[in-house]
Design goal:
By secondary structure, this protein is α/β, with parallel strands linked by helices. It is built from 13 helices and 13 strands. Bound molecules: pyridoxal-5'-phosphate (PLP).
Length: about 400
């Protein structure tokens, strides 16, 4: 048994490996004596938006904040009412549907595809009602959702689309980047995600109105005339008077969701290493698939559909005909960290809100809840560790 714990995330006991650039850029921020929204945040937003085929990116303190302000902005722009419905997958991290509730709207769940684990487009139409306003497809585990049919349905039924891309960055679906299909795409830079800034989130959009609304929502609902501390610099006397008079004007109910220049500087450094990061993740996933293929009677391994990238934020495995419990416990006992595949419909708080039988309405999500788990595919894993993981899984089935 290896003595070292092998985390499924790039953090945990192994620690996060900051490179030279992260340290250098953070040192520059500290030297500049400026922490609030400034050149590093602007740069991070610009390069991130460009890389995701979008005009704007808005950097906030988490992926959840990005989603929360994105839906709030869409609700305001399109004049949606409290109680209007938003379609979300029945298997996703809880933040996706929590933000619908926090916006006083109603999440309507749709089951997921048994092979990709993303929302099943063939089941969306039956969930649409007169009150449906938007769909939130989630690109889980690093794999884009099947966007063509989703966008087609959204056009037919005049629904808006908010992409939850918190588990997917830089990936293409039919040649186009995630985060550029819907009105807004939301990303997380929390520990364990593709780019790690500690905490952080980005919302991409090509709609200037939504970008401004999101900035207002993350800044306490401020008037758009003063959304950052430089907005009063270099103005004519007339304009300056106007800005000064509105610096403390709040026009909607907003939140405090700002990040700082420190996170942005780490983000820029991480962004510069993105190609190497993704390359390593894909290589690790390929290794797992190649060396676990002989267990495919027992294990459903992830697929990579031909029309899209899979960037493997993690490596999901679903046991075909048995519960994951014994295998997961065996791996954990052998110092290999696992995580559940984002179970949602069986969460105590969701049973309380939506009823105890919620899970039974979504059989594929239920199967994943019971039988699915994931292991790490982060770029800090060593060859000896991924070999050990594969050997340990084999040893379990030899028992
Ligand atoms: C699918 C999904 N949505 C939203 C989030 C929330 O991101 P954050 O933790 O940055 O708030 C996560 C985080 O893990 C996620 O996996």
């Amino acid at each position: 048994m290896t003595k070292k714990f092998i985390p499924s995330y790039q953090i945990g006991s192994a620690g996060f490996l900051f490179g030279r650039k992260e340290k250098e850029y953070v040192a520059k921020v500290l030297k500049s004596h400026r922490l609030s929204y400034g050149p590093w945040s602007q740069k991070f937003e610009e390069i991130f938006a460009k890389e995701h085929d979008s005009k704007f990116a808005v950097f906030s303190n988490s992926g959840t904040s990005a989603l929360q302000m994105a839906l709030a902005a869409m609700k305001e722009k399109y004049n949606w009412q409290d109680g209007d419905e938003v379609i979300v997958p029945a298997s996703t991290f809880i933040a996706t549907s929590n933000i619908v509730l926090f916006n006083n709207m109603k999440p309507v769940f749709v089951d997921v595809d048994p092979r990709t684990y993303n929302i099943d487009p063939s089941k969306i139409e039956e969930a649409i009602t007169k009150k449906t306003r938007a769909i939130i497809p989630v690109h889980l585990y690093g794999l884009p959702a099947d966007m063509d049919p989703i966008m087609k349905i959204s056009k037919v039924y005049k629904l808006r689309v908010l992409e939850d891309s918190c588990e997917c960055m830089f990936a293409k679906y039919k040649g186009r980047k995630v985060g550029s299909f819907g009105d807004v795409g939301c990303f997380s830079t929390y520990i364990a995600h593709f780019l790690v800034t500690g905490v952080g989130g980005l919302a991409t959009t090509s709609d200037p109105e939504l970008a401004t609304l999101m900035r207002s929502y993350m800044n306490h609902g401020r008037d758009s005339i003063y959304l950052n501390i430089d907005a009063d610099k270099g103005l004519s006397s007339k304009k300056l008077k106007m800005v000064v008079s509105k610096r403390f004007s709040f026009v909607r109910l907003g939140h405090s969701m700002r990040a700082t220049e420190l996170e942005a500087a780490i983000g820029v450094a991480q962004f510069e290493g993105r190609h190497e990061n993704i390359k390593k993740r894909k290589a690790i996933a390929e290794f797992y698939t190649k060396h676990l293929l002989d267990l495919s009677n027992h294990l459903q391994l992830p697929i990579v559909p031909k029309d899209r990238d899979h960037h493997f934020m993690m490596y999901p495995i679903v046991l075909k005909n048995m519960s994951k419990k014994n295998l997961v416990n065996y791996l954990e006992e052998h110092n290999i960290e696992t995580r559940e595949m984002v179970p949602l419909t069986n969460q105590p708080i969701y049973k309380k809100i939506f009823g105890n039988d919620l899970e039974s309405h979504f059989p594929v999500a239920e199967w994943i809840n019971k039988n699915g788990f994931y292991i790490g595919s982060h770029p800090y894993l060593k060859t000896i560790e991924i070999k050990y993981i594969v050997d340990t899984i084999h040893n379990f089935f030899k028992k």
